[in-house]
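Standup notes
- DV: blocked on the single-chain target, sequence here:
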Amino acid sequence: CVVKCQQFVEKHCLAYCLMALSSRCGLLRAVVYNCLARFEQHLISQRFYCKEQILTMLTLLKHSIKKSNLKLAPIVALFLSKLVDLFTHPESKLYRTITRFLLKQSYIDLVHIPLFSELFHSSTIEYKYERGWILNLLKYGIKDSIDYTLCTKAYVFKTLMTFYDCSLCDDSTKLEILNIFYSTSKLQDVLMSLLFDYGFLLWLQVIVKNCSSECLMILSLIIQNIGLRLVSIDNQVQLLEFNCLLMLFIRRLKNETIIASSIADNVISTLIKYQECLKSLKNSLDMKEIKHIVDCSTIMKKTSLLSCFC
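- DV (later): unblocked, structure below
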């Protein structure tokens, strides 16, 4: 049976197989490794436009795996699958950068995030596109604690938090950075590390004052995730910082002529859940004050949560 390798690549089957290498199921990974080995055998005898690039990538991957049935970090698996997509689009602005990267390597470092520094701090004409590509990889690639460990090694979170306040950071990049932190905040262990090791709440207090309306929406979702985690821990310092963040966020809404109802829902639902925790703190938020602040702005449509305070 002859496998049509070009169709296998163009229909994203190869990318799907590469992503499956990050599966927690050992049996599935074993099947995928066998599938990739057979695909490589078929690939050698066929000709199509991106054959050499894919063959090079598979060879490097084979040299990188030191033990059988190795589980890849999801962010590395996503990186490899995105490479396949780039190979099928040679007109891409990243095509040359990626091919040069592969040609320079004798193997792919599976315990680091490939090309993070090169693309994020790119000095080429296409620096915005390259930075956006690596940020997109981070947004969708951080799935568990392994990815967080890789990001920590590459100083990803410190870099993003520092760059956010830089004058070189435009609004679209700020939105992407917040989306990365929103994705990260869904992971309980990772979020706890951000709170205790990176001063995440203090950083949010700084950026909430001048963020755009689009960023407010993402911030409201991050606040929700933080609130869900803080209720299970007994740490007065973190609760005080969270209380301060909520006050700053609500007061920030005063400057908005239009507040999306979803933002109001996110914040007030968080406050409802944590008003008992906040009551034990001095200078905690007064729910009547919150309702007054929100009502002073124009809400696009009434929310069921706001009616609780009428």
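- Follow-up: Residues 1-109 form one domain.
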